[in-house]
């Protein structure tokens, strides 16, 4: 028969018998993704060709006996079925990855931010939430002006791929811990704007005082870097008093001169009275005993092997067993004692800095 | 002569078949795309729904062809009319399916109240992946991370038994990273490790804090004092300094290490016994000493920025006799009977009563079940409260 007629028959019957096998292949690809976590390549869609040809045989369009006469229509049926199969396989894989698959953790469908909020999403995938309205709960006193300003001017960054309910919860938690608010309620709308309802904090101090202590303000020269929680010993005319720092103001904002600042220290009740009456000679900070790194360093120094930082590695010969750690670029590596010999070699050229402590009997340049 | 009546019958049958199959395709499309949007919160990928709809339609036609041997009554299958009929059916049903795909999607968006998110870009992808979320629940008790200061029990309780919603499409590694970063943003928590079970639920959480404040950077048996200096001292952190009085006969009052300087007030680290010799009302002159600076504080500072940390262990019967090389970290120094052994070799054997300082990552430390003290306990009372709570939960 003429080629145009064969083409017509081939393509149209290819469309007839091709879709069912293609959809089956697509379903198979989907089941493989969901069940066995295997992604088949789209070429597997060519598996749709044999069933399609069989269907065409059964329908009477193709006949084995005809041989080469039906070659064109056979080829076209196979081509159409193959194309549909490849497309279905690739889409089956894609649908499989989009289907919700978690069996153990519950799934929640909820609203996300709207496209209008896309402007507030930065390159790191974080969205900036800004407050629009600030309210207080009934039955609570009004918010202090400084707190009100801090809340109204604040901006907070969270990952953008979170639901609105999750953004609300995270912002409420951040506000509660940062401003010490007893009660916070947050509503985030689809554009990324938050309406905050807050109750003001109850007290000013960062925490309750331990029993048997009093908070005493001390003004004087305070060592740099003191924070609440540090243990201090106050040397006074009436003897030494120990206590824990509750709050520290920065220099220049308290005390008679610019160098002095004020500490609020929790001291034992009997000592508090005498502390207020005597003059302060010195304020010194004690180590809090939780820094084994510094203990190890000072023990190494006492044992005669102080820690040194070597910048110019090429200029020295180093004992491999004396190396504590080395830096290449941004990464620090601290080798284990059993592979202390391994690091020297090609790595020695590219190392930027090395911490060493000389081993007993080691070579020191 | 053409038989008009037969022709009209044929035409009517064909038209009915076309309209019928197109309607069937449209119905299947609307249902499929609406269900897809409802289940995955996303629009079905282009072409999937028409594929399914046409599959239904051609399935029915193939079935009727196999059973009756005819597509259209009175026309043999191997005829240009049947072929044309097939092409026309696929064309009509296909167009209707494509249109109804979009219709079904819009309907589902209206019903669920979530507008469709069109457009490309990472930001829109992020918003799209937000809508289907997994609820991750933290376990009932949060542990403390070895090698770090313990987080107070209140904060740990406020994390326990809470839930976090994360996008559904994250890999296990990504999910763990997101959970750890979420915990590290909490007040009072500096480091967190999360372990996920094979099915994606959270099996174990451990948190720790880094010590802050001046007391945490002081070597043992030194104290920090602020003194007034007559002029800002030269020298930086770690330099050895001598404090000289500034009266008529300058005298050496104390020696120590310079910590920092702000203006004319210097913070100096001294022996606790020498503090009584200095007064904050007098002014002193600081002279930088000739000793080479030790870099131990630099090592301590670097360790605060990396995962590795130093722990102090006492060797008990379980560890006695083991080689230093067997331990999970690098042993820096062993204190044995008042003597210090610096940088012991891997073949050194541990003796009971030794105290060792080891540099290791918290992960490596977790592999050894050492019942001895781990550093960073905030206070003994804190641990007692935690220990008491577990049994009383059952009673209450």
Describe the structure in brief.
Chain A is of the alpha+beta class and 365 residues long. Chain A contains eight helices and 14 strands.
- What is the H-and-E element order of chain B? HHHHEEHEHEEEEEEEHEEEEHH
The global form of chain B is elongated
Tell me, rounded to a whole number, the average pLDDT of chain B: 83
> Tally the helices of chain B: what do you get?
9
Run of helices and strands of chain A: HHHEEHEHEEEEEEHEHEEEHE
* Amino- and carboxy-terminal Cα gap of chain A: 97 Å
Structural class computed from helices and strand pairing of chain A: alpha+beta
Oligomer category: heterodimer
Total strands of chain A: the figure is 14
Q: Mean of the pLDDT scores of chain A?
A: 83
C-alpha Rg of chain A, in Å? 38 Å
Largest interface: A-B, 125 and 138 residues
- Helix-strand category of chain B: alpha+beta
Unreliable residue runs of chain B: 371-396
Strand order of the largest sheet of chain B: 6-9-8-7-10
User: Which percent range describes the beta-strand content of chain A?
Assistant: 15-25%
- Radius of gyration of chain B equals 39 Å
Strand elements of chain B, count: 14
Strand order of the largest sheet of chain A: 6-9-8-7-10
Helicity level of chain B, as a percent range?
25-40%
Q: Which of globular, elongated, flat, extended, rod-shaped describes the shape of chain A?
A: elongated
Written description of the protein model:
The complex is a heterodimer of chains A (365) and B (396). Chain A has helices spanning 3-36, 49-59, 71-98, 145-153, 164-179, 269-277, 292-302, 347-350; strands spanning 107-109, 126-136, 156-159, 183-188, 193-199, 213-220, 231-236, 239-248, 261-268, 280-286, 307-310, 323-328, 331-333, 353-357. With 365 residues, chain A is α+β, with helices and mostly antiparallel strands. In chain A, helix 1 crosses helix 2. The longest helix of chain A has 34 residues, at 3-36. The termini of chain A are far apart. In chain B, helix 1 packs across helix 2 (48-68). Chain B is elongated and about 135 Å long. The longest helix of chain B has 37 residues, at 4-40. The chains are: A alpha+beta (365), B alpha+beta (396). At the A-B interface, helix 1, helix 2, helix 3, strand 1 and helix 5 of A face helix 2, helix 3, helix 4, strand 1 and strand 3 of B.
């Amino acid at each position: 028969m003429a080629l145009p007629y064969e083409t017509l028959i081939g393509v149209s019957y290819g469309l007839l018998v091709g879709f069912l096998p293609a959809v089956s292949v697509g379903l198979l690809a989907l089941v493989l993704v969901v069940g066995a976590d295997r992604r088949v390549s789209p070429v597997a869609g060519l598996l749709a060709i044999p069933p399609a040809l069989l269907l065409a045989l059964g329908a009477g369009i193709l006949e084995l006996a005809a041989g080469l006469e039906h070659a064109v229509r056979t080829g076209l049926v196979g081509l159409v079925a193959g194309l549909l199969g490849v497309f279905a396989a690739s889409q089956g894989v894609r649908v499989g990855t989009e289907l919700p698959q978690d069996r153990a953790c519950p799934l929640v469908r909820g609203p996300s931010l709207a496209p209008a909020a896309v402007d507030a999403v930065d390159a790191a995938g974080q969205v900036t939430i800004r407050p629009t309205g600030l309210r207080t709960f009934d039955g609570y006193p009004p918010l202090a002006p400084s707190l009100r300003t801090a809340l109204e001017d604040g901006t907070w960054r969270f990952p953008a791929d979170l639901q609105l309910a999750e953004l609300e919860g995270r912002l409420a938690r951040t506000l509660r811990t940062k401003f010490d608010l007893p009660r916070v309620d947050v509503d985030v709308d689809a554009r990324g704007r938050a309406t905050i309802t807050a109750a003001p904090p109850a007290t000013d101090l960062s925490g309750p005082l331990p029993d048997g202590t009093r908070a005493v303000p001390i003004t004087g020269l305070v060592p740099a870097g003191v924070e609440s929680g540090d243990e201090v010993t106050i040397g006074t005319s009436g003897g030494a008093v120990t206590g824990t720092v509750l709050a520290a103001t920065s220099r220049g904002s308290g005390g008679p001169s610019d160098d002095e600042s004020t500490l609020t220290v929790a001291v034992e009740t009997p000592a508090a009275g005498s502390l207020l009456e005597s003059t302060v000679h010195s304020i010194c900070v004690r180590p809090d005993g939780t820094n084994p790194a510094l203990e190890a360093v000072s023990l190494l120094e006492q044992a005669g092997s102080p820690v040194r930082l070597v910048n110019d590695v090429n200029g020295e010969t180093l004992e491999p067993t004396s190396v504590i750690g080395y830096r290449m670029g941004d990464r620090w590596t601290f080798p284990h004692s059993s592979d202390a010999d391994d690091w020297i070699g090609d790595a020695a050229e590219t190392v930027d800095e090395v911490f060493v402590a000389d081993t007993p009997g080691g070579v020191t340049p | 002569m053409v038989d008009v009546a037969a022709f009209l019958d044929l035409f009517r049958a064909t038209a009915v078949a076309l309209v019928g199959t197109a309607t069937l395709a449209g119905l299947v499309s609307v249902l499929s795309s609406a269900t897809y949007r409802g289940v995955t919160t996303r629009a079905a990928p282009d072409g999937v729904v028409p594929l399914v709809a046409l599959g239904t339609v051609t399935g029915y036609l193939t079935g009727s062809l196999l059973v009756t041997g005819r597509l259209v009554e009175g026309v043999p299958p191997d005829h240009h009319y049947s072929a044309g009929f097939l092409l026309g059916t696929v064309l009509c049903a296909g167009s209707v399916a494509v249109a109804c795909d979009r219709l079904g999607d819009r309907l589902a968006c209206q019903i669920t109240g979530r507008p469709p998110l069109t457009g490309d870009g990472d930001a829109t992808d992020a918003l799209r992946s937000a809508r289907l979320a997994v609820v991750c629940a933290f376990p009932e008790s949060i542990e403390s991370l070895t090698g770090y200061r313990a987080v107070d029990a209140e904060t740990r309780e406020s994390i326990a038994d809470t839930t976090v919603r994360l996008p559904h499409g994250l890999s296990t590694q990504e999910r763990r990273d997101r959970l750890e970063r979420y915990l590290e943003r909490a007040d009072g928590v500096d480091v967190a490790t999360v372990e996920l079970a094979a099915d994606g639920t959270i099996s174990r959480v451990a948190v720790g804090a880094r010590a802050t404040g001046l007391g945490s950077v002081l070597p043992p048996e030194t104290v920090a004092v602020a003194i007034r200096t007559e002029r800002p001292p030269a020298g930086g952190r770690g330099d050895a300094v001598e404090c000289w009085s500034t009266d008529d006969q300058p005298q050496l009052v104390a020696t120590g290490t310079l910590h920092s300087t702000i203006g004319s007030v210097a913070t100096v680290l001294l022996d606790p016994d020498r503090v009584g010799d200095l007064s904050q009302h007098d002014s002193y002159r600081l002279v930088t000493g000739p000793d080479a600076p030790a870099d131990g504080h630099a090592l301590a500072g670097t360790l605060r920025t990396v995962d590795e940390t130093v722990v102090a262990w006492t060797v008990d019967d379980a560890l006695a006799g083991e080689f230093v090389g067997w331990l999970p970290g690098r042993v820096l120094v062993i204190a044995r009977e008042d003597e210090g052994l610096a940088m012991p070799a891997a073949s050194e054997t541990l003796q009971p009563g030794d105290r060792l300082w080891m540099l290791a990552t918290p992960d490596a430390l977790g592999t050894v079940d050492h019942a001895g003290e781990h550093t960073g306990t905030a206070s003994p009372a804190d641990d007692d409260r935690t220990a008491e709570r577990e049994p009383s939960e059952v009673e209450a």
